Amino acid sequence: MAVRRASSAVVLTLGRSPLLVPCLEALRRDGGSALEILLVDQGETPAALPTGLADKVLRPGRNLGFAAGNNLGIVAASGDWVAAVNDDAVVEPGWLGSLIAALEADPGAAAAQGVNVQLAAPEVADGWGLAWNGWWQAVQLGHCESVPPPEAGAREIFGASATAVVYRREALRQVAAGGEVFDSRLFAYYEDVELAGQLRAAGWRALLVPAARVRHAGSSTGRTLRRERWRLLYGNRWLVVARLLGWSFWPRVPVLAARDLIDLVHALGKGDRELAAGILSGWTRALRLLPGFARSDGPAVALGEIRRFR
């Protein structure tokens, strides 16, 4: 499906993904000359790339994190539609056009994603959207399930994963606080969940478009971080839930704590010191930053609306 309007794709890298070049090549094939590709290279040394794969290369000189790095790319992007694509994700033909067409057909939709399939097992889904489970953990819908048929029509989801997503720039402008689309305080993990909540609170929807497919290796950079990854995951969860729920957050603190304690006990039982230390340092992070995320008013999104997408 041809890309009909100016669009941009932001790819963030630390230079650790072996799929960076295939990622950029697939985007170029899919979007052609209508697609502006921006590479935000936050690695210690510049990534070596073939000529022509990226229209703009931004090098901030340090690792700003997933949130701030993507913000840098989004600000520099010129397209009416802005895609964020992980450097370990390879889009299949028609991905961009299918998502833009779905957004054009639904003026109330801010974001659209396709079905992300596992790189090593493309018949198995990595995920097809964001939702909240009963423990107030953000989860990937469809993870490890069979891939739905591509001819299935677009349907609404709570939010789109920034693994590979197309956003409507108008919607991003509306919710950007201080010019930031993703909250840079989160650094990495849960930043797309927080944005999904902000967009839905502002009255926008998110779409799953099964015809769009992406092959995803799955956190090839995140796995190298270990303890830091767990610290961000467990800490940011508390912060994003607090912002989403407002005063309704406090009655649910025991549920959040119980889930973390279960994970901590399991980690200690398996001798996984990295995970255990990450959970504990995540609590410290959450306590330090919580005053900046907690709200005294009601839920930003009605609880019934959140449950509808589980």
Brief description of this entry?
This protein has 310 residues and is α/β, with parallel strands linked by helices. It contains 9 helices and 12 strands.
CATH level-1 class of the largest domain? Alpha Beta
CATH fold name of the largest domain: Spore Coat Polysaccharide Biosynthesis Protein SpsA, Chain A
The CATH architecture of the largest domain can be named as Alpha-Beta Complex
Radius of gyration: 19 Å
How many domains? Answer: 2
Mean pLDDT value = 95
Share in β-strands: 15-25%
Structure explained in plain terms:
It is a single chain. The radius of gyration is 19 Å and the shape is globular. α5 (191-201) packs parallel to α6 (227-245) and α7 runs antiparallel to α8. The protein has 9 helices and 12 strands. The protein has 2 domains: 7-222, Spore Coat Polysaccharide Biosynthesis Protein SpsA, Chain A (Alpha-Beta Complex), CATH 3.90.550; 225-307, no CATH class. The longest helix is centred in the C-terminal third of the chain and has 19 residues, at 227-245. By secondary structure, the protein is α/β, with parallel strands linked by helices. Strands 1, 2, 3, 4, 5, 6, 7, 10, 11 and 12 form a 10-stranded mixed β-sheet that branches. A two-stranded antiparallel ribbon has the order 8-9. Helices cover 36% and strands 22% of the residues. 48% of the residues are buried.
